[in-house]
Write a structure and sequence with these properties.
By secondary structure, this protein is an all-alpha fold. Helix content is about 80%, strand content about 0%. The protein has seven helices and no strands. The radius of gyration is 22 Å and the shape is flat.
Length: about 200
């Protein structure tokens, strides 16, 4: 929301109420996350993870390095296929499809970083650079889509305020347009990333 006033003179002052309403909605979500973090279920998961991390790792065998070396190309091929599949499923009017692609790209990036010692340095750098560019655009699309949804919710929370409804509609339109503009870049960046893989 901070960039909207510079685009529409006279709107900046009115957006203060919209910002406050969105912050309140976001605060409710934060409180729900705090409650979940303090739950018995989350505590059990954290304790089990800690126990697993403290356990002694199994001793490596001579065949482990060879097995990992054989696994890496298969994993990379699978991740590349997953990115292609998610790319084909993207639809400009559905931010969730871009989020699914973003998750596939993130998993691939993590795999490349984890298996970096098995690859040439320049290959790793080229792959990561292509994935980072794609991830940046997908991240902006996701942020704008979430922002648009939050400002739409703001208008619903105060249906008796026509000014807030107008501000919400303006902000949602601005953010949605930004997300769609970013969506136009995704196919080109994804094809570059797939070639780099």
């Amino acid at each position: 929301l901070p960039t909207i006033p510079s685009l529409q003179p006279g709107v900046g002052a009115g957006l203060a109420r919209l910002r406050e309403t969105v912050a309140a909605i976001d605060g409710v979500r934060d409180q729900a996350a705090v409650v979940e973090a303090a739950s018995v279920r989350t505590t059990r998961i954290a304790l089990a993870l800690g126990q697993w991390l403290c356990a002694a790792p199994p001793a490596p065998s001579d065949g482990d390095a060879a097995a990992i070396g054989e696994l890496w190309p298969l994993l990379l091929a699978r991740q590349k296929k997953q990115i292609g599949k998610r790319l084909r499923q993207t639809r400009p009017d559905d931010p969730a499809t871009f989020h699914a692609l973003r998750i596939a790209v993130r998993k691939t990036r993590y795999a490349i970083e984890f298996f970096a010692p098995l690859q040439a340095g320049k290959v790793v750098a080229r792959r990561l650079a292509a994935l980072v560019k794609l991830q940046d655009v997908l991240g902006r699309i996701n942020d704008q889509a979430i922002g648009a949804e939050l400002v739409r919710q703001a208008a619903v929370t105060r249906p008796d305020d026509p000014q807030l409804a107008a501000e919400s509609a303006f902000a949602a339109g601005f953010l949605t347009a930004g997300a769609r503009a970013g969506a136009g870049q995704v196919a080109k960046l994804a094809r570059r990333a797939l070639r780099a893989l």
